[in-house]
Design brief:
heterotrimer; A mainly alpha (about 325); B alpha/beta (about 550); C mainly alpha (about 290); A: about 325 residues; mainly alpha; MetI-like fold; about 75% helix; about 0% strand; B: about 550 residues; alpha/beta; Rossmann fold; six-stranded mixed β-sheet; 23 helices; about 35% helix; about 25% strand
Chain lengths: ~325, ~550, ~290
């Protein structure tokens, strides 16, 4: 089959799909949050509030206009970078989120820098020496990590590094983060925990992707040309496993933005996930919606990026 | 060692099955290959020919292992070597040309990088020297654009070219022995000729020894000096090509040869032909294609203005190479791919184009049988359930009546009744194809569309299926439309033949003397490209180069 | 095809079809069966009522009287773990069955019918995947309040898109097979194609997928309970037991160690079992 598609066509197609998905998501997010039982007016005024007071507050917050109108207004606001104003305190959502988001991104960035190189090396290594003691050790380790809840990984790390060894503080923030060494110590526990969790997934998926390409005729051909195992894997299998590996990394990284609620709670780390959970308690819809959109945008952009890497790494599509 | 380039003594190779059982797949094989000699390993699937060929490189596929015996390549003893030592021989002393070059080329690397990789792995020569040498080989292998073809990616060149490029890849390290593993099986016949010629000339110039693995005696006859006939991991017979072809001694070799000689089809008279004046199948100005439809026409138009008439009780062959649209024709007639223009008449009645608008009775009268028996039978259903379903669906049969009919159907295709409790995965390829036929027969059809139904089978098994088709025709008053790329099979069963090229019927011929009556240049080219059981056929074959350039899908 | 079997052994058994479980797989299976047994009969075996304070001491050590020690209120941990098994295993099983059944049905329909139904559904569920699963669970439970039906439905909703995607991919593969074309050409209905031709061929991998998803659900449920949004006191699943007794972590109290071990043994053994399934079952349709 001849592919007439030019790469820019495929790439713009992916971008189009991502954009379309985003519209669907915003629609779903907006109306799902609308369905939340109870509303902010009741929460703010407490149980003793009279129905008249609640109605008055609702009107003043614009909650009595039809949902569709508010949706379009919200969407137009989003398009211009206006995330709206919190219902609970009169700060803009952008103000509330920015600090938390930069915290979350900082943590995600550090974990990425630590875990991606380690995970790719171990995953490719395990595939290269498939069935060896090293491979089996990695396999048991990763299966254990992905099998236990994150809070266990976190508490075990605390137990080992903070309680028994006393090297690191158990809590992340509140400690002094002025000097570099102190900052390192402060971030260490959450980074260690998250690195374990996301590396395990990446290692397994990388290993599987590489092994799949190792079992192809062209890798056997490389063997029959006299290539040793390392050359077969690095020069022949790896370039063809790039797409699936990029996808595995993207999935793991998207988890780091919003999926780290347990770590944020245990280590008292002020990130976006915790902000969203708190927002639910107060029915602060603009804040909830913005958080949800941030998670979806980061997921979609990572997945789309991985798709593009897959397209560009494949000469048949390029 | 003596003057042999390769010596194999008492080679035994074992394998572990999925259930952990150990079986012996090569049972004590010995042979020699002299310098400059080309030896063919011939046999059916499961005969162990590829396993032996790979073992000459010290390689066994996963689950297999060399149990006993030894292999000498020159003075080197391959069986007792370390993996690293074997790797140093691969590509320099012995090299490999795979069955499917399309799968053996890494899709993400340029062709040149892959062709000269051997020189890089073994540090034979600097890169520019290696590229120069590769271009020379491309030239010797008659590749077009030999000076620039290396900069392309594998998907940018044709199958026939890739196959020749893989030969260049094997020859770059000046090996003593080259293993060809069914290198032309996946190619069309007109392409095969070019590739075989190219292989022959480069091998003759270098004095290199060769092992040529194939199931096709006629192809082997063109390239091999000596032939080794294998079956079930045991050598049946060994001799010069001339001797094996003309004076075979072993009964299995004779069987292989006789399966090759087509028994010409005698037309039969349908007992009901007098009652029905309309032909069983008529196709008028048929157009069909795939893809999104604009203004009632699909974007990829395959069939263009196809006309044909198949009288009751007669058989129509449709021949052509890949991409000729012959399978699409069967799909369009059966309604699986609804035609967008034209008419299909079965027994004089016009069929609605789409499957959904055909009635049960209309569907029942024509049945289609596919090439790959493996994928045509649901692996989760027992044979009894597979055959029982059309009985219930078309005839409303249930319970004991249905069971009895299933046994009858199995008997019709010459299979034992107890097979109905088995799953398809437990049957051999030939048995599966018989079940496929039996399922079509369960509908009591008048017409069976056979889409390459013998192409995936071994020669002897395929010949038995053809015999079965003929018997069934006599018993059941059937008509067949028989699609194939294999002319001798078509000769064996058909009365008339259509030659298709790029979606059009270029010529209709009587099956009995296709070669003498063919007039269209493409039909002539196609028919003359079929390898003959004659060692001198390829060297004496003369084809008009302009014709080849025009039609061969290289 | 070298397998030739006698007529009498016509029933398909694992051995005859050519697969057997290896040692790791068997150990995994044994642990799974153990927990299944506990989930069914656990409360009958409990030495004390699960909610009753039976010891004056809290975070008591392992002893003859309290095999696995006591918790932060002095309740018997063994009894509480036995009770918790039902919640953890029961809620997770119910959720995984709903999500996989829903995903498989929708996936098969999407694969066979194709067209706009397939496109819209796939896009929608893909987008849903973008919301972090635990966070989605937290938000829903925080919004509507925690109860067992809410937990089951929320967990099922989280994993339905994945199950759909998996089943759809498998069904698309099977749908290209010639036996499907043969059935279509015979005139069979879409329902017949889905139920009789496709479903039996994706069953093996789907069951393996069910196992993997079960583990995810156990983990998310434990996470929810750990954050106090899962099973509500005085009842407790394993995750809630860890939360209740987290204070005992610093001195390694059995009250926090054993519930953790319970979670880990269940999830690890399910994963080990799935990983060591013969490839024949796991990827039959590939």
């Amino acid at each position: 089959m001849r592919h007439k598609h030019k790469p820019w066509f495929l790439v713009s197609q992916r971008l189009g799909i991502a954009f379309l998905t985003l519209i669907i998501v915003s629609f779903a997010v907006f109306f799902a949050t609308e369905l939340l039982p109870g509303d902010v007016a009741e929460v703010l005024l407490g149980q003793a509030a009279t129905p008249e007071a609640v109605a008055a507050l609702r009107e003043s917050m614009g909650l009595d206009t039809p949902a569709l109108g508010r949706f379009i207004g919200w969407l137009l606001g989003l398009a211009q970078g206006d995330l709206g104003t919190s219902y609970v305190n009169n700060m803009t959502v952008a103000e509330l989120i920015s600090g938390r988001l930069s915290n979350s991104l900082k943590l995600a960035g550090i974990v990425t820098l630590v875990s991606v190189p380690i995970a790719l090396t171990l995953g490719i290594g395990a595939a290269m020496w498939q069935g060896s003691l090293f491979d089996r050790g990695i396999s048991i380790l990763t299966i254990s990590v992905i099998s236990v809840p994150e809070f266990m990984v976190a508490t075990l790390s605390v137990l080992i590094f903070a309680v028994w060894l006393g090297w690191l503080p158990a809590l992340s923030f509140g400690a002094d983060t002025s000097s570099f060494l102190e900052m390192l110590r402060a971030y260490a526990m959450p980074v260690i925990t998250l690195s374990f969790v996301v590396s395990a997934q990446m290692i397994r998926m990388t290993r599987a992707a590489v092994i799949e390409t190792i079992n192809t005729p062209y890798v056997e051909m490389a063997l029959l040309k006299g290539a040793l195992r390392s050359r077969m894997v690095i020069s022949h299998a790896l370039p063809n496993a790039l797409g699936p590996i990029a996808n595995a990394v993207a999935l793991s990284l998207s988890y780091l933005v919003g999926g780290v609620i347990i770590v944020e709670t245990i280590f008292n780390y002020p990130g976006v996930a915790k902000l969203m959970v708190d927002a639910v308690a107060t029915r602060d819809l603009p804040l909830i919606q913005s958080c949800a959109m941030i998670f979806c945008v980061s997921y979609l952009s990572l997945i789309t990026l991985a798709d593009m890497i897959a397209i560009l790494s494949n000469p048949r599509l390029r | 060692m003596s003057h042999s380039r390769i010596t194999v003594r008492n080679l035994k190779i074992g394998a572990t099955t999925d259930s952990g059982r150990r079986v012996e797949i090569i049972k004590g094989v010995s042979f020699d290959i002299a310098p400059g000699e080309i030896v063919a390993l011939i046999g059916e699937s499961g005969s162990g020919k590829t396993t032996i060929a790979l073992s000459l490189m010290g390689h066994t596929r996963s689950g297999c292992f060399i149990e006993e015996g030894n292999i000498h390549l020159g003075d080197a003893e391959i069986t007792s070597m370390s993996e690293r030592a074997r790797a140093s021989l691969r590509g320099t002393k012995v090299s490999y040309v795979p069955q499917s070059a399309a799968a053996a080329f890494n899709p993400s690397k340029r062709i040149m990088d892959q062709v000269i990789e051997i020189t890089k792995i073994h540090k034979l020569m600097p890169r520019d020297k290696a590229e120069e040498k590769a271009v020379e080989l491309f030239k010797a292998l008659a590749l077009p654009h030999y000076d620039t073809i290396g900069s392309r990616y594998p998907h940018q060149v044709s199958g026939g070219q890739l196959q020749r490029l893989s030969a260049a890849m094997a020859l770059i390290g000046d090996p003593d022995l080259v293993i060809f593993d069914e290198p032309t099986t996946a190619l069309d016949v007109t392409t095969q000729i070019e590739v075989l010629r190219a292989f022959k000339s480069v091998m003759a110039n270098g004095g290199i020894s060769g092992v040529y693995v194939s199931h096709d005696l006629a192809v082997v006859a063109q390239v091999a000096d000596r032939i080794i006939v294998l079956k079930g991991g045991v050598i049946q017979e060994e001799g010069t090509a001339e001797q094996i072809l003309h004076n075979p001694t072993h009964s299995y070799t004779k069987e292989l040869l006789s399966a090759f000689e087509p028994v010409l089809h005698e037309a039969i008279v349908s007992p009901t032909a007098a009652k029905h004046t309309a032909p069983i199948l008529e196709v008028r100005n048929l157009f069909a294609g795939y893809g999104p439809v604009h203004n009632g026409e699909p974007s990829a138009k395959i069939l263009k203005d196809v006309n044909l008439v198949l009288p009751r009780g007669r058989n129509l062959g449709v021949i052509g190479e890949s991409g000729s649209g012959k399978s699409t024709l069967a799909r369009a007639i059966s309604g699986i791919l609804p035609p967008y223009r034209g008419e299909v008449l079965i027994d004089g009645y016009e069929m609605p184009h789409a499957l959904k608008s055909r009635s049960k009775e209309e569907l029942r009268r024509s049945q289609i049988v596919f090439q790959l028996a493996d994928t045509a039978l649901n692996p989760a259903h027992s044979i009894g359930a597979i055959l029982g379903r059309p009985l219930t669906f078309y005839h409303g049969m249930k319970g004991a009546e249905r069971d009895a009919r299933v046994v009858e159907l199995l008997d019709m295709v010459r299979l034992p009744a107890n097979l109905r409790h088995r799953l398809p995965g437990e049957l051999s390829g030939g048995q599966k194809q018989r079940i496929n036929l039996a399922r079509a027969l369960a509908a009591d059809p008048d017409l069976i569309l056979c889409d390459e139904i013998t192409s995936a089978l071994d020669t002897v098994v395929a010949a038995a299926i053809i015999d079965l088709l003929k018997e069934l025709q006599r018993e059941l008053d059937l008509s067949y439309m028989f699609i194939s790329h294999d002319l001798s099979t078509v000769e064996a069963i058909c009365d008339d033949v259509l030659v298709m090229y790029k979606g059009e019927v270029v010529e209709a011929l009587p099956a009995r003397d296709m070669s003498s009556k063919a007039e269209h240049p493409y039909s002539k080219l196609l028919i003359s490209s079929i390898p003959q059981l004659d060692t001198g056929w390829l060297s004496s074959l003369e084809q008009d180069p302009d014709l080849v350039a025009e039609f061969a899908l290289r | 095809m070298t397998t030739r079997t006698t007529f009498l052994s016509a029933l398909p058994t694992p051995k005859r079809l050519g697969y057997s479980f290896n040692l790791t797989g068997r150990i995994g299976l044994a642990v799974i069966l153990f927990w299944a047994f506990i989930a069914i009969f656990g409360p009958l075996l409990a030495p004390y009522p699960a909610g009753e304070i039976v010891d004056w001491d809290y975070f008591g050590p392992m002893s003859d009287k309290f095999w696995l020690g006591t918790d932060y209120l002095g309740r018997d941990i063994l009894s509480r773990i036995l009770m918790g098994t039902r919640y953890t295993v029961g809620i997770s099983l119910a959720a995984v069955f709903i999500s996989v059944a829903g995903g498989v049905i929708l996936g098969m329909i999407a694969a066979v019918t194709g067209g706009w139904f397939d496109m819209v559904l796939s896009r929608l569920l893909d987008a849903f995947n973008g919301i972090p699963s635990l966070l989605f669970g937290l938000v829903t439970v925080a919004a509507v309040g925690s109860s067992i039906p809410v937990l089951v439905l929320t967990l099922a909703a989280i994993y339905l898109p994945g199950a759909y995607r998996f089943a759809r991919a498998l069904s698309v593969n099977v749908n290209t097979m010639d036996f499907i074309t043969v059935a279509r050409a015979r005139g069979e209905t879409t329902v017949y194609l889905i139920v009789r031709e496709i479903f039996p061929n994706i069953l093996g991998p789907v069951l393996a997928d069910l196992g993997v998803r079960f583990v995810f659900i156990v983990l998310v449920l434990s996470g929810l309970s750990f954050l106090g949004l899962g099973v509500q006191p005085p009842n407790a699943d394993w995750g809630a037991l860890v939360r209740e007794n987290i204070e005992g972590l610093s001195f390694g109290a059995p009250a926090v160690v054993f519930p953790s071990i319970a979670i880990a043994t269940l999830t690890i053994s399910v994963n080990l079992f799935i990983d060591n399934l013969p490839t024949k079952i796991r990827d039959r349709s590939e």
